[in-house]
Amino acid sequence: MSYTLTLITAEEASDAERRAAEQRYRRALDAALGDASLVAPTYGVYLRIVAVHGESPDVTALTDAEREVVEQWQAAESAAMTAALGPHRYLDDARFEIGL
């Protein structure tokens, strides 16, 4: 299953800068999860967990499998943000929208 990725930001960025950031994010996300084919299913499960337990789920309320998915996704997403935007990724409102 493939996925789409779009950089959403309030900052002005050229198309080339936007594409480069999206490519860095995608490479890091794919690597952190083990393969590009694992991104969509992992993200889908993560979204279902968040729908049931909220944005910041209480880890004690999750099953071991749910906790593993949440931790794995959050670590992968953090690594991808750092790869795409650098260590100062929290300075603007940039985010990446993933489509399944």
How much strand? 5-15%
The ordered H/E elements are EHHHE
Number of helices: 3
How are the strands ordered across the major sheet? Answer: 1-2
Helix fraction by DSSP (H/I, runs of at least 4): 55-70%
What is the molecular shape? globular
Distance between the termini: 8 Å
Return residue spans where pLDDT drops below 50 for at least 5 consecutive residues.
none
How many separate domains?
1
- What's the number of extended β-strand segments? 2
User: Biggest sheet, in brief?
Assistant: 2 strands, antiparallel
- Overall SS class: mainly alpha
Radius of gyration: 14 Å
The pLDDT mean sits at: 91
Keyphrases for this structure?
100 residues; mainly alpha; two-stranded antiparallel ribbon; 3 helices; globular
Question: How does this model look, in words?
Answer:
The chain has helices at residues 15-33, 39-53, 64-85, and strands at 4-8, 95-99. Helix 1 packs antiparallel against helix 3 (64-85). The N and C termini lie close together (8 Å). It has a two-stranded antiparallel sheet with strand order 1-2. The protein has one domain (4-99). The longest helix has 22 residues, at 64-85. The protein has 100 residues and is mainly alpha-helical. The chain contains 3 helices and 2 strands; from the N terminus they run βαααβ. The mean pLDDT is 91.
Offer a quick outline of the entry:
The protein is mainly alpha-helical and 100 residues long. The chain has helices at 15-33, 39-53, 64-85, and strands at 4-8, 95-99. The chain has one domain (4-99).
